[in-house]
Amino acid sequence: xxxxxxxxxxxxxxxxxxxxxxxxxxxxxxxxxxxxxxxxxxxxxxxxxxxxxxxxxxxxxxxxxxxxxxxxxxxxxxxxxxxxxxxxxxxxxxxxxxxxxxxxxxxxxxxxxxxxxxxxxxxxxxxxxxxxxxxxxxxxxxxxxxxxxxxxxxxxxxxxxxxxxxxxxxxxxxxxxxxxxxxxxxxxxxxxxxxxxxxxxxxxxxxxxxxxx
Length: 213
Description:
By secondary structure, the chain is an alpha+beta fold. It is built from six helices and nine strands. The chain has helices at 6-33, 42-59, 68-78, 88-94, 125-128, 194-197, and strands at 115-117, 120-122, 133-144, 150-159, 162-167, 172-175, 178-180, 182-184, 189-191. The strands form two sheets. Strands 1, 2, 3, 4, 5, 8 and 9 form a seven-stranded mixed beta sheet that branches. The chain has a two-stranded antiparallel ribbon with strand order 6-7. Helix 1 (6-33) packs parallel to helix 3 and helix 2 (42-59) crosses helix 3.
């Protein structure tokens, strides 16, 4: 039989943990890009928040964690703690009892997905509530880059002198299994992706701002 010493076991454990973190980061990134509702993954989000809370309580900051850069990204992806959520529920999980599902925070998580209604694009309510997203009277035409199908949008990303009409990032399903992007007939357009529209007080996309962490 192949025996492993303590150092080898520790290296294997660290490698596996790193893989799990990367898989989780990739999955949550896709979830945020698609702007999906968090109810379906609430237990996983709660568990990550509990782990972060426990480490910060014991060590003061995630900056002291192994693979701290990845943990900081995970912390940003899972978002703030939910009402009633605390480290105590972590103990229930470790004793084999399933934690209760927590309520969403309406100001942070979305409940209504984006849609096209009567030819007019409506972003998700999560996108609509963003500070740099505005609905205006003017409608702009968006055209499928492949088949020419046309819709309209009167939702805009407004940041200083930058004004871009919002377009559905998932494009137009003009052929089976194929989605083609919409393009604005006049001026530029920007996809309704949360991270692309989330600007910090320092004038940068929040995910790229070092000061915001």
